[in-house]
Amino acid sequence: MNRKTLVLPAVLGLLAPVLAACGATDGASSDGDAIVVGTTDRFTASKEAPAPIDPAYAYDVGTWNILRQTVQTLLVQPSGDGEPEPEAASRCGFTDTGSERYVCTLRDGLKFADGSPITAEDVKFSIDRARSIKADSGVFALLSTIDLVETKGDKQVIFHLNSPDATLPYKLSTPVAGIVNPADYDKDKLRDGFKVDGSGPYTLDAEVENNELVKAVFTKNPHYRGHLDPKNDQIELRSFADPDAMGSALESGDIDLMTRTMTPAQIDKYAKSEDENIDLIESSGLEIRYLAFNTDASPVKSTAVRRAIAQLVDRGALVSKVYGSQSEPLFSIVPAGITGHSNSFFNEYGDPSVSKATETLKQAGITTPVKLTLHYTTDHYGAATKTEFEVLKKQLDASGLFDVTIKGAPWSTFRPAEQKGEYAVYGMGWFPDFPDADNYLAPFLDKDNFLNSPYDNSEIRSKLIPESRREADRLTASESLTGIQDIVADDVPILPLWQGNQYVAARDDVTGAEYALNSASTLQLWQLGRGIGG
């Protein structure tokens, strides 16, 4: 059989899994044998971030993948293309033509994992809590268009918006809108540690060492009522220090499936491997990587310096040397495959050019070489990140216009330092909260943005973002979305680098591995089951 299974993209580049794993049965886990999943995501409770998996705080793909198994939302994103589907709700919809009043009706029989009933007031409590705490992770900004949450009886929740927002259904499918038990969560305070009390398909038992979650055991929640259909009774998610250790565990059978982050070498290995026990599943991805700039910090406070960097970076060479065919160059912060994508950076700068970058700096009176430090995280986006930054350093240094130093730090210290503005230039990745262009623009450019960036463009914030959100037909919003991307290419508060595919490697007695990730990199553990290897 083929060692690589392709999950072909559907409309707009979203995932539509089409192939089943080798030797699959119906996927049910009849003997209760836990399926073990490996990840290199690290989950640390620290002084700076004591509540890593509180829905009102969590805002990275790893912690969200824990919450999506345990905390129920009104709607859920489908495995493939399409609008969010009712989950804790039986139905939801806008009740006006202006996308400013949205109503959800809860399913019958909803209960928290402890057996207590869920009412509309619990939904209101959970969403109002995230909005009022305003955690420094910036996740609350996803709910910024909500003006008031109202309830009607025990089952109806009404959202009154402060401005039209056709993307609200997507936002209500993210963990920040997760329903938590008021008996276990304070209204005005984050919940420290690694406990979660919700109504999702699983409960969580966290194994913690030195304030770090090393194993998460997800057990099927008998009180769960929702849209999802778990194919297993128990899943273990184990955190590994590096991809090599994770790969060894897969090959020895200690784990059944490995997710992010695999190295380029591992992906090549499993794609070519003759090992009949391991399958590699590849799918189109919406993950992006980019450089972010603190536009108040020297030397990148100068737009000319940022534009010169944009003129010099050779994305094609970067991708070829570090990631090969596993990624492709990206010329906008909105990736290809998303409605509204525009190659704004290529349109602005064309091919890399030292002479053009030299002229840009000369006209601005910038003395060269410009000393610059590029910061990156050592343990959050994969082992190839260091190599990527070594290539960026060589490209900029080779121009003679820059003198670059690179510095790495673990995510637990990197992220707080970035938020405090301690880095002038730093590398980040983005896994979408939901597959819409708004989610590649507003989180970086709007008020209370994810990066805590000082960059503020009034046309983007006051006109173009609100304008784009009025359009339920996202094709109609393309003009506003393209306008935002063109301004970003001109001002360069962010420099897009590449867009990556998604990969999962699984032992061939695991069914549903081709559904393990959706287009937004959501880990769908409920899809995994046991079959017959072969």
Automatic annotation (TrEMBL):
It comes from Streptomyces heilongjiangensis. Keywords: Signal, Transport. Its main location: other. It comes from the Bacteria. InterPro entries: Peptide/Ni-bd, SBP_5, SBP_5_dom. The keyword Transcription regulation does not apply. It is found in: Cell envelope. Belongs to the bacterial solute-binding protein 5 family. Residues 83-450 form the Solute-binding protein family domain. PROSITE patterns: PROKAR_LIPOPROTEIN. Residues 1-20 form the signal peptide. PANTHER family: PERIPLASMIC BINDING COMPONENT OF ABC TRANSPORTER, PERIPLASMIC OLIGOPEPTIDE-BINDING PROTEIN-RELATED. This is ABC transporter substrate-binding protein.
